[in-house]
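Because discrete structure vocabularies remain unfamiliar, we turn briefly to a single example record, giving the amino acid sequence and backbone structure tokens:
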Amino acid sequence: MEIEHTHLSINGLSLHIAQIGKDELGTVMFLHGFPEIWYSWRHQMIAVAKAGYRAIAPDWRGYGLSDQPQDPQNAAWEDLIDDLLGILDAFSIPKVYFVGKDFGAFPAYQFAFLYPNRTCGVVSIGIPFAMPSPPFSWDSLPEGFYVKRWKEPGRAEADFGRFDVKRVVRTIYILFSKSEIPIAQENQEILDLADLSTPLPDWFTEEDLSVYASLYEKKGFTYPLQIPYRAEGKGSEHIADPRILVPVLLILGEKDYVIKIPGRAEIVKDGLMKKCVPDLEISYIPEGCHFVQEQFPDQVNELIVGFFKGHPVN
């Protein structure tokens, strides 16, 4: 059983799709975050395929082996929803499970809200959901907070441009696998926060690093920085009652720095997410970091397959 690769023409772009398995029990679509690609789901794809599901993992537009739009400044979150619809229709898939991590969780939630009849369930890794806007603001964090820095056009490009692509990806994996929120001092850039002598995590090999680097060397980071960091909105700001009525599993790594961002933990602890997602399950992985699906693949695989089997396609 091997992962296969294809390209689909979706909304005027050629989108790369990795896939494996037969649709015996359903189809699972994996949605990556930044600076990831389909490859970040390699462990999960094989596991769900062995469990009887078809696994599909696209590279988002502008990422990996997918085409980059010609006008990155016009990137919009709504484009991602349209791409997901296009992929499902191209494969004639009536209904799907979503697994989203990092910013990939946002379109998974949004799709489930807009198209519940085409969504079997959602697994979110590291990203809780609550609308109206959750009770946090980037304004409560220092100027050196990485999101603020990377929202600024050209800032991250200049930071990354000081190094070769392999070094950039290595640094991001080292830095963002820690439990502290990446915040630079006034005289620092974000990549300066990582110690060059720090080895890669033992769950992320030099071979893994080379896969990422080979793709970013071709296309760079400009479009990927638009989504998630610079495109406005996530598509649900103006919805009066944005409840998600399909089953949702939230997997949280307790060492993920994201949980320390003001307001994020409160979404879960204060019951705000439960109000928006009535059919909610939450699982914690005690030592899990931001890349928990690569760090502890067996634990994550067991959770997601168990969730799917507990919520069969109907």
